Amino acid sequence: MRQVTLNVLTAFLSGRTLKAGNTKTDGQSVWLHGNKIIERRDDGIWITNAGWNSATTKERLNGLQGVNIRQRNGVWFLNGIPWNGDWVNVRDYEQGSQYVAETVSYEHEFDVTSEWMNAGYSRPTYFVFHTLVESEREAVEKLLRDHGIESKRMESDTDGVYRPNYFVIVHPDKHKEALDILNNQN
């Protein structure tokens, strides 16, 4: 861990203010290059990459206890779980937590099909929506959120051809309910 990370996170965890190079804390949040990446909330410590998959962002976040971010093939993994960088509660991703155990059981299950191209694409088993248009995915996420169903985003591309496939994934326990909500919208 770099010294600047150690100094700023120590100040953050003890509720003190500190600025070191491109990183600062007011004791409640941490900013990197002016982007908030860590925040203390009533229910724990939350993190985000603020849209920057940079080595520095990853290094700062990895300075927190319970956070282990690795990158494979351009995808970030938070404690072994694919993570898109959106705000998450670190507690929910700690090794051994019930949420992590449940998430791992369905995030890594894929079905390889060839629905629309001979090359095929990988899709998560518990997806409830698939599109090639990102704005459509956002509308489905909002609809599910309005019904109290949390979802995750996933993107894959076709083998050998870059054509993004956007997916909305839900927890297995909410899969049928989410499908019913989406089917009743037509």
Task: Describe the structure concisely.
The protein contains five helices and 14 strands. It has helices spanning 3-13, 55-62, 98-107, 134-146, 175-183; strands at residues 18-20, 23-25, 29-32, 35-41, 44-47, 69-72, 75-78, 81-83, 88-89, 110-113, 121-124, 127-131, 151-158, 161-170.
Q: What are its keywords?
A:
Alpha-Beta Plaits; six-stranded antiparallel sheet; 2 domains; three-stranded antiparallel sheet; elongated; single chain; 5 helices; 186 residues; alpha+beta
Description of the molecule:
The N and C termini lie far apart (52 Å). This protein has 2 domains: 1-95, no CATH class; 105-186, 2-Layer Sandwich (Alpha-Beta Plaits). The protein has helices spanning 3-13, 55-62, 98-107, 134-146, 175-183, and strands at 18-20, 23-25, 29-32, 35-41, 44-47, 69-72, 75-78, 81-83, 88-89, 110-113, 121-124, 127-131, 151-158, 161-170. By secondary structure, the protein is of the alpha+beta class. The strands form 4 sheets. It has a 6-stranded antiparallel beta sheet with strand order 1-2-3-4-5-9, with helices on one face. It has a 3-stranded antiparallel beta sheet with strand order 6-7-8. Strands 12-14-13 form a 3-stranded antiparallel beta sheet. The chain has 5 helices and 14 strands.
